[in-house]
Amino acid sequence: MKNTNDIKKQNRTIAGAISGIFGAKAAASEPPDDDYQSYIMENDADEAELERQRRDELTLRPRFFAVLINRGRQKETKQTLASLQAQTYGEWELAEESGAAQDGTGYVIRLNAGDELSPDALYRFAYSVQRAVEDKPDMIYADEDEISPSGRKAPVFKPEFSRITALSYDLFGRILAIKQDIYAMCSPPGLDADEAEEYAFKLRCMAHAGRIIHIPKVLLHRGSRLRPIENSAGMAAIRGYIRGEDRQESVSTGIWKGSFIVSSLRQPRRVSIIIPNLNGMESLRRLLESIERCMLGYKYEIIIADGGSGDARLLKYYGLIEKARAAKVVRCESAGFATLACAGAERAMGDALLFLSRDAEVISPMMLGALIAQGERENVAAAGCMLISPNNRIVYTGGVIGLCGEAASPYEGEAADDDKAASLRRLMFTDTVRAVSVLSGACMYMRSDMYFSCGGFDRSFDAAEYEPLLPLGSDAELCLRLSRRGFCSVYTPQARLIMHTGLPRLKETPENVRVRCKDEFRHLSIYGDPYYNTAFDKSYVVPRVK
Question: Which residues of 95-175 form beta strands (DSSP E)?
Fold first, then answer.
């Protein structure tokens, strides 16, 4: 087992790597433990379903224009054309790179020669347009896999659309239908465009799109392996998007090949670090010393919200740090997390708030900067980083509602660093700046105006008798409340925080908290977390197909 010093040393290595070298991290082709062939048999449309689609007279029948790009050998082009001719939906035609006549009602799909559409692909695209009664989609994308002589493999199951995630890597992949008028106005690249040119074009289209939807079905089979976007070209594509949208953001290389990190250029004048506490002398001292050690150069204040501690040593410690003006101590009569967090926020002078568990330990000087970089981005509600255990196991990488019967985090309990090449799927979850449904209040960064405009943490989740003092659903509820207002929560892997205790399990919490959480999570529990593909079996924290 590694000790804390080993982890600190390891984190410093990671921090340096992220600034440049870490961008070279490679991905394995496919995660282990996937029975993908069984998934194909259970989820591909059978002949009866394909025949039903052929007979289905959709009331709205958009036309699709297929543009073949990167035409190589004649055999590859024939394979793609054959997949088009096998479509159950007949409203399509081949087009040149301009996307055919611009009446604005159809959609253009750029297909790499050698890639094959599933027979029901265009039907499902058309059906998704028909289902959108009023707000018609401007862009539609779906899941994909790779076809080889040995069969289909390497599926990419994508999350629902988020601009945050789409600027971190090519979320859309190789199957994307774009409304004709948007396609035309965004200067489509030539027929021999590379991955970076295609990505830049997709981002231009994204900037003009109103609604973008995802179909959680494997509808394209790549004829070749995914090639990562080259770093400099990918960053140039993102810079073009940032300039076009007039955003105060910058871009750097990500942790794995083909990934990127977009950061806000805005900086808060001061960050108020709020720490709920109850009789946690040694834990609190460890956290405060780690903050002092790792947050040099940042303007911050520390507010300790105490829930009625009786430990004489702790009370003496409070007196010392208040006398030294190292922290403010706010004394409360009750000890619930939400109550203490709200009390601390009310005394905060900063224009940004960072809620930290007293059982946390800061191990990277990058942590606060990484949280600011994401938490200050436009339309972002909150930001959180990777939480790890003292023995370097993943504790939290952003929450998924409904995972393991409640709300859990992908890859929880797995090694935070794996010497073997991680699968692309894992990298997309653990090593990517991405939108998530919920974050943990053990480490949550928010702008002050965002926090107070929504009313802060809901105190009805408090269970004062519960120890250790950790958030019990009020953090997730706050994220979901802000999501309903159009803001998203963001997970960043740029920095890590040690948690010396585990996060609370819903099944272990008091009855009133379980009832409140189940009520808040009901919608996503039924319809699925938008950032966790329905193909994954929610019985496991490691995402694998059902």
Answer: 107-112, 116-117, 139-148, 151-156
